[in-house]
Each structure stands twice: as structure tokens, then as C-alpha cells.
Write a structure and sequence with these properties.
Blueprint (H helix, E strand, L loop, with lengths): L1 H25 L1 H4 L10 E3 L6 E3 L4 E3 L2 E3 L2 H11 L1
The chain binds zinc ion.
Length: about 80
């Protein structure tokens, strides 16, 4: 009986250690999803006055445009 108990506890300890290792290995993967969404700066289209996020706006010099069409129209009107 003594040997059976010893083997039982040994198997239990190995199982617990294996489970702990699996849990520890799974944790770091969750950290990669930490992408802080920063508030996007808004810019105003010179042609139509629409406010759009700077990321989507088209820059031309110091001015911003909401689309390629408005950029061209604004450039054409200057000539
Ligand atoms: Zn526009």
C-alpha cells in the first residue's frame, strides 16, 4: 500500500506541475493584444469643411483634404 500511495502522489505532483507550466506559457500571448487606441487628431478639409481623422486625410502642403477629388478641385480653383 505504501508504494501505491507514493506513486499516486508522484503522479499528482507531476500533473500539477504540468498544468502550472501550461498556464504560465499561455499567459504571455494575451499581452500582445494591448493596443492602446490613441485619440486621432482631426483635420478640416479646405474645400468642403468636413472634419476627418488626420490618418484618412490627404495632405497638401499645410492643408488637408477629405478626398483626392477635393484636393484637385482646390488646386484647379487657384490657377
Ligand atoms: Zn472635402
Amino acid at each position: 500500500m505504501g508504494l501505491f500511495r507514493l506513486l499516486f502522489w508522484l503522479a499528482l505532483i507531476i500533473a500539477v506541475v504540468w498544468l502550472c507550466r501550461r498556464l504560465l506559457q499561455a499567459k504571455p500571448k494575451k499581452r500582445q493584444k494591448k493596443h492602446l487606441t490613441k485619440p486621432q487628431p482631426m483635420v478640416r478639409c479646405v474645400h468642403c469643411g468636413v472634419h476627418i481623422p488626420q490618418e484618412k486625410a490627404l495632405p497638401h502642403g499645410e492643408r488637408w483634404f477629405c478626398c483626392q477629388d477635393h484636393l484637385q478641385k482646390s488646386l484647379n480653383s487657384e490657377r
